[in-house]
Design goal:
- By secondary structure, the protein is mainly α.
- It has one domain (45-306).
- Helices cover 77% and strands 0% of the residues.
- It has 14 helices and no strands.
- Helix 1 (4-33) crosses helix 13, helix 7 packs antiparallel against helix 8 (135-157) and helix 7 runs antiparallel to helix 13 (267-280).
- The chain starts with a helix and ends in a 28-residue tail after the last helix.
Length: 332
């Protein structure tokens, strides 16, 4: 005997919940993809001010929202001060390097290099700290990503309108941003794996990281108050992509698997590149587009590659599955 209307409604409810989760993650990724273009609408503000405002204020707001969870799990967090501090330092470094990379190398290239290098840096962290075997898929993706970054660098250096030194430094800072992104994601995941709830893990890392950025904001942020436009950009960055975007992603993670969420966020660098060309007016030569395509393919390989025995960690190495390394935010 079937369960009647209630049983029939359960699959529909599950399907609706999954669709809601997919929509939330997609909207979050699109919002994140707007940050580089939004920063160009505050030309009087430097990248350090923009980055400090975005994640400084956004991080503090995340910490404030997570206060109940932080109180409940303060004992567990106190047992792991090193991981919390390392994650917070990475959160503080990430926006400074990310927005500086876009300022020097351009929105499209800075964004794609930063996001494209993060999964590679995550793999290296997991190999060094947890003994994870990287396997042929990861090696192929890493080689493709490195080649794509090199092509981007050469293509920009051959552009007479782009100072070669700035391009190289911008791409280098993009790699730093990718490493910082990977580190704070790894730290948050280790906290979650150790029994700390997702809200408390992300609230501690982002809240402390945001606090570390406030002195940078106080030193560099005066231009953000010089015009309503600059202030609006700072408010948008902090409240919409950094705060609302993370909340949406966390909502999505309660309804779809982290691996599915990771795949959906591949639209973030695509959105950033399209907006940079269409709105900012950046022009990329064919070689640069080829480099961007190679990095996009790197992300696709890492997200969609099979995760069989070759990607497992050694017995006793601990750690979570590689597909879950892009931890953003979420529930308790």
């Amino acid at each position: 005997m079937d369960g009647g209307p209630a049983a029939a409604g359960a699959p529909r409810a599950a399907s609706a919940g999954r669709i809601g989760g997919i929509a939330a993650v997609l909207v979050a990724a699109i919002l994140w993809g707007t940050t580089g273009t939004a920063a160009t609408f505050a030309p009087g503000a430097g990248p350090l001010a923009i980055g400090a405002a975005a994640l400084g204020i956004g991080g503090l707001l995340q910490g404030a929202v997570a206060l109940p969870a932080l109180r409940r799990q303060r004992v567990a967090l106190r047992r792991r001060p090193g991981i919390v501090l390392a994650g917070a330092l990475a959160v503080a470094v990430y926006p400074l390097a990310f927005y500086s990379s876009m300022h020097l190398a351009g929105v499209a290239i800075g964004t794609v290099v930063s996001l494209g290098s993060a999964p590679i840096a995550s793999g290296l962290l997991e190999r060094l700290l947890e003994g994870r075997r990287l396997g042929a898929w990861w090696t192929s993706a890493a080689a493709l990503g490195i080649a794509g970054s090199a092509i981007l660098c050469v293509s920009k250096m051959n552009d007479p309108a782009a100072p070669p030194g700035e391009t190289v430094l911008g791409i280098g800072l993009g790699l730093v941003a990718g490493a910082a992104y990977a580190l704070y994601s790894w730290c948050a995941y280790r906290l979650i794996l150790g029994g700390v709830g997702r809200a408390a893990a992300m609230g501690s890392v982002f809240g402390l990281g945001g606090a570390l950025l406030i002195p940078v904001l106080l030193i560099t942020g005066a231009p953000l108050l010089e015009s309503p436009g600059n202030f609006a950009v700072a408010a948008y960055m902090a409240l919409v992509p950094m705060f609302l975007g993370y909340l949406l992603f966390g909502f999505g993670l309660t309804r779809i698997a982290p691996s599915a969420a990771t795949t959906l966020t591949l639209c973030e660098p695509a959105v950033a590149a399209v907006l940079a060309v269409v709105i900012v007016g950046e022009r990329l030569n064919p070689a640069a587009w080829a480099g961007l395509a190679m990095i996009a393919l790197t992300l696709a390989i890492l997200a969609l590659a099979p995760h069989g025995p070759e990607s497992e960690r050694r017995p006793g190495a601990g750690g979570g599955h590689g597909r879950e390394r892009r931890v953003r935010a979420g529930g308790d």
